[in-house]
Structure formats: C-alpha cells, structure tokens
Design brief:
Layout: E1 14-18, H1 23-28, H2 39-46, H3 56-65, E2 68-72, E3 74-78, E4 88-92, H4 95-101, E5 107-111, H5 113-120, E6 128-132, H6 144-158
Parallel strand pairs: 1-2, 1-5, 5-6
Antiparallel strand pairs: 3-4
Length: about 180
C-alpha cells in the first residue's frame, strides 16, 4: 500500500508527520478521516477557529493558509488495518530531501511516538522537532484538551502566534 502525497502550501513553517494512513483514511483518501481522530479538531482549536466539519478541501486550504505542511513517515508498506503495529516492510519518505526542497520549514512535529521512531532511522534533522501526543482514537491516555495544549505549546510559537496562556519550549518533547 502507498501513502498519500504531502500537503504543502507556498512557504510552510511547520511540517506535521504522521506514521501511515489508517484504514478509514485510506478508504476516504483523506488524511485523518477517522471520525474519532482528533487531529482536525485540535488544529482548528489552535488556529482559533470553530470546527464545523468543513470539507476536506477546506481543511487542506486551512493548513496551507497557516503555513502547515502535512505528510506521513511511511511512503509504502504492507498493512491491513489501522494500527501502527501492523505496518510491515515500511519504506520511509525522503524527509531530508523534502526539507531541502522546503527550506521555510523550521519545525517538524511528529503526530505520536511511532512517527518519531521511524524518523530516527533517517538520522538527525536539520530543524527543530517535537513529538506530540497522537491524535489517534487509540490514544485514550490524554484528553482532547491535554492533546490540544501539548500541540499548542509547539505550534503556536512555530507559527509565530501569540500564546495567551501557554508558555512552552518548542523543543520539549511531550511523552506520547
């Protein structure tokens, strides 16, 4: 199976990397399509906008408007379900090449520890990075608010947003 193409606007500041599209995403051909995945709700919350179940096209526009690129660490693999543990024979993306082609990216955010573990196989990144709590419905360890707070601590400064009540270090890796 093959993953999706990256979503990239004009001059992204942040790259969010998942692991590989889950079954619901593959069926819908959309990033984070599972109805219980909290990625889009968290993102809209950080951007200060109401999440009113926008179209997928509008979601991708929102990413580009705010300088966020989106991709997955695994370009292709063998899998049947949605769990990262089911990924067999992964072929990783060319992350160093992607970052060279997109020099405006200054921060890479990993949506969960599994994406970060795959990235470690590629060596040290030339930009800041942070491991954030997975937005997957399988990650019930954190509430929606805890996830959003962790994501906000990294994304707000990386996107040059004013943080109202959150201090944070964009290099601080939250435990997943």
């Amino acid at each position: 199976m093959y993953g999706f193409a990256p979503v990239v606007g004009g001059a992204p500041k942040v790259l969010v990397l998942g692991t590989f599209p889950g079954l619901a995403s593959r069926e819908a051909e959309e990033y984070y399509a599972h109805p219980r995945n909290q990625f889009w709700r968290i993102l809209y919350g950080i951007l200060g906008e109401a999440y009113d179940a926008p179209s997928y096209r509008r979601k991708l526009q929102k990413l580009k408007e705010h300088g966020i690129a989106l991709w997955d660490m695994v370009a292709s693999c063998e899998t049947t379900g949605s769990a990262d543990t089911e990924i067999q024979n992964p072929v990783l993306i060319d992350l160093p090449g992607f970052l060279r082609k997109n020099p405006s990216i200054q921060t890479v955010c990993f949506n969960g520890g599994n994406a970060a573990r795959f990235a470690k196989k590629l060596g040290r990144l030339a930009v800041d990075s942070a491991v954030l709590p997975s937005t997957s419905p399988a990650n019930a360890r954190y509430s929606l608010q805890q996830k959003e707070d962790a994501w906000r601590r990294v994304l707000a400064p990386a996107l040059n947003y004013i943080e109202l009540k959150y201090g944070g270090n964009k290099n601080a890796n939250d435990e997943v």
